[in-house]
Design goal:
Layout (H helix, E strand, L loop, with lengths): L2 H5 L14 H7 L4 H4 L3 E4 L7 H7 L3 E6 L6 H22 L11 H21 L4 E3 L12 E7 L11 H14 E8 L12 H10 L3 E6 L10 E6 L2
Parallel strand pairs: 1-2, 1-4, 2-3, 4-5
Antiparallel strand pairs: 5-7, 6-7
Helix pairs in contact: 4-6, 5-6
């Protein structure tokens, strides 16, 4: 199925196209460029993040995957602009649920989000092969194709609409395509509460031969969203 055919089956209005910066990724996942050198990295779902664009320009080997990539660059850019503005309006209402030392204020946040969007869309135009359209919990990659997989602001966050079975199926697929390590951030839902089935997920992963730890990270924007799940395959 081509992107054009697939895009008719996806309602762009239901996709939020907003992203974080490369620097945020390093902090969210407590990583350095040196640690990632020589690794095959998957960012999934990647959205409008600049991690792939900036990372590859810095000599890293990163692939981005997201359901949004079934749509055209132009449509995604326009949607991204709308989503950033909508998000800023919501931030004004709920800004006490966030810690502002990273961005200083809403205008600082807006600049970060627009910068990430611009980097992402520009890189998509130049290197479309790095941006793979996917529909979780299924991934079109080979077993063990990536050394490291990073997944931000999707699993656990949408506990109100993604059930435990979806999480389990997604984890099985992430494990399948990853050779060494998976990192998930954050560990809370949209209300800032720890994902209710997290201990169950950890037990499942441990029983399947993984070593799992919850790690505090040097990044907290949403209150209580300051830990990641670090999963090492046996």
């Amino acid at each position: 199925m081509s992107r054009a055919e697939q895009s008719t089956k996806l309602d762009l209005e239901r996709i939020i196209f907003i992203g974080r910066s490369f620097e945020e990724y390093l902090d969210m996942f407590s990583l350095s460029v040196a640690e990632l050198k020589g690794k095959r990295i998957l960012d999934c779902p990647a959205g409008a993040c600049s991690f792939t664009a900036v990372g590859n320009a810095s000599g890293l080997n990163i692939t981005a995957a997201d359901i949004a990539y079934y749509h055209s660059n132009e449509d995604l850019f326009n949607k991204g602009i709308q989503d950033v503005e909508h998000a800023m309006e919501q931030m004004e209402i709920a800004k006490t649920n966030y810690i502002w030392d990273y961005f200083n204020d809403i205008e600082g946040l807006r600049k970060h989000r627009l910068s990430a969007l611009n980097h992402c869309v520009k890189d998509m135009k130049q290197s479309i092969e790095r941006y793979v359209p996917v529909t979780l919990p299924s991934l079109p990659f080979k077993d063990g194709e990536f050394d490291v997989l990073l997944s931000a602001h999707f699993l656990f966050m949408y506990a109100d609409r993604l059930d435990y079975e979806f999480h389990l199926n997604t984890f099985n697929e992430l494990l399948r395509v990853t050779k060494e390590e998976i990192r998930i951030f954050p560990l809370v839902d949209l209300e800032g509460k720890r994902y209710e089935h997290l201990d169950k997920i950890i037990s499942y992963l441990t029983e399947n031969g993984c070593s799992v730890e919850e790690v505090k990270v040097p990044y907290e924007f949403q209150v209580n969203a300051n830990s990641m799940l670090k999963i090492n395959k046996g």
